[in-house]
Design goal:
252 residues; alpha+beta; Gyrase A, domain 2; four-stranded antiparallel β-sheet; 11 helices; 4 strands; 50% helix; binds flavin-adenine dinucleotide
Length: 252
């Protein structure tokens, strides 16, 4: 089955991310030694400091905690969008060193949900189009000298945006907040939105004090999309609330 679906894993993150950010915040407003600052920082202080930072708009302490995700089952179309986020680090599967064809002679791709929703006939049409592009790819690969870096790099020009890719992405908490703001929003394209919500769920499990109010702008204030608003702030707040509840239930 050459079709794939977005899947995100939280691979690594700064140990004690909430404590690290709260410590950085506390240091800004205190004359105490770092050792003393570390000692007098209990759970309620941590939550309080993070909340105060947020209310001041003092965002730089949030840069001290980083989160690394493994993202697969996504399209090259998603890649073009996610890599626009400059305050992040990316490692992406190469289309030069890794040939697109799998052992069974097909290649992986993402089918848009809207096309799936149109039914069997539409899906078959899409699959046929993908198969044609795969034929073109193999044709050029062979003509250019067979599966190797040199031929892959040119044969890939006939692959579609739907072609599957995978990546490892690292962002700090400040950059993630901006990412969630833009990409959990209904205005964002469906695939990156799906990935953003999966990422939000993963970081909420390990750092709820940092990310508890994250999501599209409308979950914690007014919509920032102006005339382009989807007009569904209540629905988005419900969605974020349901996510928080699901995570709280998991922990019980
Ligand atoms: C719904 C939607 C539609 C979009 N449509 C398009 C489109 O049609 N065409 C298109 O090209 N892009 C489009 N984008 C991409 C968008 O313009 C941004 O490039 C992308 O969302 C990354 O956001 P960012 O710059 O805030 O993130 P980052 O690059 O991670 O930057 C984070 C923050 O750092 C600051 N910053 C970073 N670099 C600079 C800099 N050079 N100068 C000043 N401040 C900086 C800014 O405050 C920025 O918000 C779209 C995005 C969304 C969500």
């Amino acid at each position: 089955m050459p079709q794939v679906k977005p899947s995100v894993k939280l691979l690594e993150y700064t140990p004690n991310p909430e404590r690290t950010i709260a410590l950085a915040a506390k240091l800004c407003y205190s004359d105490a030694t770092i050792e003393n600052l570390q000692q007098g920082l209990d759970k309620s202080d941590i939550t309080k400091f993070i909340e105060r930072l947020r209310s001041f708009g003092h965002a730089s302490p949030f840069e001290h905690a980083s989160f690394t995700f493994g993202i697969e089952g996504v399209s090259r179309s998603l890649l073009a969008q996610i890599t626009r986020h400059r305050i992040a680090s990316f490692s992406v599967k190469s289309q030069r060193y890794v040939a697109a064809n799998k052992n069974d002679g097909t290649f992986n791709y993402v089918i848009p949900e809207a096309i799936e929703a149109m039914g069997k006939e539409a899906v078959e049409k899409f699959e046929k189009q993908m198969a044609t592009m795969h034929e073109w790819y193999t044709e050029w690969q062979t003509a250019l000298g067979g599966a190797c870096e040199k031929s892959n790099e040119d044969a890939r020009f006939v692959l579609p945006n739907a072609a599957e890719t995978k990546m490892i992405v690292t962002m700090n908490a400040r950059s993630l907040m901006n990412f969630f703001n833009l990409r959990c929003c209904n205005r964002a394209q469906w695939e990156i939105r799906e990935v953003a919500w999966q990422m939000l769920e993963l970081v909420l499990e390990v750092a709820p004090a940092i990310f508890g109010k994250c999501g599209p702008s409308c979950v914690s204030g007014a919509c920032t999309e102006g005339k382009m608003t989807c007009g569904k702030p209540l629905e988005m707040r419900e969605k974020q609330k349901a996510l928080l509840e699901r995570i709280a239930n998991k922990k019980e």
